[in-house]
Design a protein that fits this description.
- The protein is α+β, with helices and mostly antiparallel strands.
- It has one domain.
- It contains one helix and four strands; from the N terminus they run ββββα.
- It has one helix spanning 31-39, and strands at 2-3, 10-11, 16-21, 25-30.
- The strands form two sheets. Strands 1-2 form a two-stranded antiparallel ribbon. A two-stranded antiparallel ribbon has the order 3-4.
- It is elongated, with a radius of gyration of 13 Å.
């Protein structure tokens, strides 16, 4: 059974999204938690982890 690593929501039909949390690292979270993390700027972009990729949405990667 799928489980959100932040809120603990579970369910057979629960869709999880990958989030790279600034303090907790990469985890699978429900859509509601993903939106909250994004709105509070609590996610790290892929480019800031040293992977060499860039994104157009944050000042870290520009």
């Amino acid at each position: 059974m799928e489980e959100c690593k932040l809120c603990g929501k579970t369910g057979e039909d629960l869709s999880l999204l990958s989030a790279n949390h600034k303090e907790l690292g990469r985890m699978m979270v429900c859509q509601e938690c993903w939106v909250k993390l994004y709105a509070k700027n609590r996610m790290r972009c892929e480019g800031s982890s040293g992977g060499g990729s860039t994104c157009s949405t944050c000042s870290t990667c520009r």
